[in-house]
Amino acid sequence: MILSTKGRYGLKAMFELGLQYGKGPIPLKVIAERQTIPENYLEQLIAILRKAGLVKSVRGAQGGYLMLRPPEEVTVGQVLLALEGPMAPAECVTDSESPKCKLASGCVTRGVWEKISHSIHDVIDTMTLQHMIEEQISTIEKE
Amino acid sequence: MILSTKGRYGLKAMFELGLQYGKGPIPLKVIAERQTIPENYLEQLIAILRKAGLVKSVRGAQGGYLMLRPPEEVTVGQVLLALEGPMAPAECVTDSESPKCKLASGCVTRGVWEKISHSIHDVIDTMTLQHMIEEQISTIEKE
DNA sequence: TTTAATCTTGACAAATTTAGTAGGGTATTC
DNA sequence: GAATACCCTACTAAATTTGTCAAGATTAAA
Questions:
Q1: Average pLDDT in the A80-105 region?
Q2: CA distance A115 to B47
Q3: What is the pLDDT of residues A2-21, one digit of tens each?
Q4: Contact present, B138 and B83 (Cβ < 8 Å)
Q5: Of A34, A126, B69, B81, most Cβ neighbours within 10 A?
Q6: pTM score
Q7: CA trace torsion A120, A121, A123, A127 (10° rounding)
Q8: Which positions in chain B touch A120 (Cβ < 8 Å)?
Q9: Domain range spanning residue B70?
Q10: Does B57 or B107 have the greater pLDDT score?
Q11: For residue A55, pLDDT beyond 80
């Protein structure tokens, strides 16, 4: 159940944007280099994040990308939702209406999926980019 | 991040085997019908579960499959691990040795993956097939 | 105003995974 | 020996993943 590179690369990119918050745009090339992500591929990922309203772009020389909101207000869950789709083990426990599964009462696994989904969301909807940044700082200090 | 049908079908099949525990073998055909799973496909899935030591088979007429251990001793995590691989969002937080990721200290996302992984395992390593059966019974009673 | 940096879009594609289907072989029981 | 049921392998269509590549649009700065 490993996430795809979309989510993994995307969250790393958002971390870099979070570090840079308030300091003007940062070019994609720099993010790609720092996190070792193929630049052309990252382009596609950040387009998704832009459409999701998480980042905006500044064109032209000295341009780049920047976060719309401060890192305290952006959760890991928002980033992963945009890139990976709903972070739930089955469709029937997704927020979106799921009229497909009419076995609601007959389904023997639904309870399991609900519990997994809740436990994941407890983490990702609570954790923000700011938390990631702070954790990173304390890790470096210990070295 | 929806699970594949492997895990979803497989857990449903294990539930049926759990219900039947102690009552002799149950043919695959019956499981497939009850849970609406393509029989030939389920054959492949149960082969995986057999190799993982979760079920055993009895060949010939009146044969079928049965669980090796009582449903109280089989966790959802064991089933999903066999069918879906490690239930973690990234390789680096898998139990198996992961020498690939040497960025352990430099990786900015590892902390996130660890937390997600822990929260998932809190659920799936605790929940057994017996729990699923009990939950199902109480659901039916309420109707 | 030219140039260079940068974003934007869309096409292409190899590799892998998913979700099966199909069919022949083997063991057991009645 | 016929019926039942597991066992194994091969095949495949479709989707997803993980990129690459090229052309063009936009803007800042010299």
A1: 81
A2: 27
A3: 999 999 999 999 999 999 99
A4: no
A5: B81
A6: 0.94
A7: 140
A8: 116, 119-120
A9: 5-142
A10: B57
A11: yes
Q: What is the CATH number of the domain that holds B88?
A: 1.10.10.10
| Mean pLDDT of all residues belonging to chain A | 92
Q: Which residues in chain B have Cβ-Cβ distances shorter than 8 Å to A116?
A: 120, 123-124
Say which nucleotide is closest to residue A58, CA to C1' distance.
C7
Q: Pick the residue from chain A with its C-alpha nearest to B19.
A: A108
Q: Please give the Cα distance from A68 to A58 (Å, whole number).
A: 12
Which residues are CB-contacts of B14 (< 8 A; sequence separation ≥ 6)?
B49, B54, B55, B67, B74, B79, B129
Residue nearest to nucleotide C6 (CA to C1'): A60
Kindly report the nearest CA distance between residue B28 and chain A, in angstroms.
Answer: 18
Summarised one tens digit per residue, pLDDT across range B98-125 is 555 666 567 899 999 999 999 999 999 9
Query: Nearest Cα to A119, choosing from B91, B116, B89?
Result: B116
Provide the number of structural domains found in chain B.
Answer: 1
Q: Distance (Å) from CA B47 to C1' D15?
A: 25
Question: Residue A112: its chain B contacts at CB < 8 A?
Answer: 11, 76, 123-124, 127, 132
